Every structure is written in structure tokens, then in C-alpha cells.
């Protein structure tokens, strides 16, 4: 998984023009929030009404 994060961080450096450290910081924040079950900011997904 670490290799995947480094690869994605390098992609973000090219795509977003940010530093590698900043890209890794953002990715690690995503991993931690995902592990907690929290959706990333700006991703609401589809709300399902399961009460029926």
C-alpha cells in the first residue's frame, strides 16, 4: 500500500503542481478518514432510504 501512496503522490505532484510532502499529507489524511468510515470532503454519494 505504501508504494501505491507514493505513486499517487507523485501523480498529484504532476497534476496539481503541489509538493510531494503536501501530496502525501493529503493522501494520508484520506486514508485515515476512510479508515474511520468518514467520506472525503465533497463526496456525498447517493443517499438511500432504507426505512421502507
Q: Give me the count of strands.
A: 0
Q: Helix-strand pattern, N to C?
A: HH
What separation lies between the terminal Cα atoms? 40 Å
Q: Count of helices?
A: 2
> Sheet bearing the most strands, described?
none
- Let me know the average pLDDT: 87
Share of β-strand residues: under 5%
- Rg calculated over all Cα atoms: 15 Å
Low-pLDDT parts are: none
What class would the helix/strand composition place it in? mainly alpha
Shape: elongated
Task: Provide the descriptors you would attach to this structure in a database record.
52 residues; mainly alpha; single chain; elongated
Q: Would you kindly provide a written description of the structure presented here, covering whatever features stand out?
A:
The protein contains 2 helices and no strands. The protein has 52 residues and is mainly alpha-helical. The protein has a domain at 2-35. Helix 1 (2-16) crosses helix 2. The longest helix is centred in the middle third of the chain and has 16 residues, at 20-35. The chain is elongated, with a radius of gyration of 15 Å. The mean pLDDT is 87.
Amino acid at each position: 500500500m505504501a508504494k501505491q501512496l507514493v505513486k499517487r503522490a507523485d501523480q498529484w505532484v504532476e497534476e496539481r503542481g503541489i509538493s510531494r510532502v503536501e501530496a502525501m499529507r493529503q493522501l494520508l489524511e484520506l486514508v485515515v478518514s476512510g479508515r474511520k468510515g468518514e467520506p472525503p470532503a465533497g463526496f456525498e454519494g447517493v443517499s438511500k432510504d432504507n426505512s421502507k
